[in-house]
């Protein structure tokens, strides 16, 4: 009978083993939905259109909600005012939306809600972009309005985006 000689292989980091092809130590791709960051070149014009209460913005927001997100038992899964705020951002991503929006309990919205919100905003941006492409005079007017706004040295009034003002308008309309 032969004696078995134990074999021990010591691998040091950075060396090639018999079953390795290269030194690629990059992490494996993560599971789940890939990160999507959408740039919004029309953000300034959308802000001016919202300030002027233009109806095509509301149409695009509702289309984005019903096409991308849908409803459950007749209730929308994402708030339209959140989509209106999201389309005013220069970059739309799930991580950015999670940090900006809160739920009814004062906590950041969950990842799935942020994904729904980003999807609705992307659909709404497509509709707004098509509307501005069909109406170049409107786009020029909104851009001129934004340029005048910037020349005056004014910053964007973020109170226009606040929940309090949105709720105040809702109460004024429902007071009758």
TrEMBL record:
This is Uncharacterized protein.
